[in-house]
Amino acid sequence: MPHDHHDHPHSLLPSDPALRVKALETILTRKGLVDPAALDAILETYEKKVGPHLGARVVARAWSDPAFMAALRQDSTAAIATLGISGRQGEHVVAVENTPETHNMVVCTLCSCYPWPLLGIPPAWYKSDAYRARAVREPRKVLAEFGVTLPEGQKVRVWDSTAEVRYLVIPMRPEGTEGLDEAQLAALVSRDSMIGTGLAGAPA
To answer: Could you tell me which residues come within 8 angstroms of residue 201 by beta carbon, excluding any fewer than 6 positions away?
Structure first.
């Protein structure tokens, strides 16, 4: 018998991803499997309370405070916790520092392990099969596609994030930022620069 697509459960969902999510939320709520208030609280947390701005605070502190940078090298998770930043998916963080000799880049080859408390929700490209495979095989080509061209002598080190260890890249501090305070420094730090697929921005 031919398969009738109209009987398939997926045929009940709209094609647009946002509408599909809303439809699934409605179905699960009606079945009593999801508490809308709890779901809203989770979404608000990851949209407003955690995210790249927190990771940028860590980077800015590392740039401006040698003692904090030393603490990050010794125990990144503990050092980050002194700034009041912690939570699920961020229990075991290792900070890796970019230098003129080495550029660090993070990938999760098995799934999409990612330091959520520091960087928020992972971008779609981070979870894609293409990024997960190519970041290991041809990191310089991948970086070039992100607009990052490294000096010839600078090597690329790729870190494979796992459920046990997640990585935070500390990008190199841009030149001409000696007089900036931590808030101004944090504004130069992007999410991509903390994954290693970008560089810190230049001061205005």
So the answer is: 174, 187, 188, 189, 190, 193
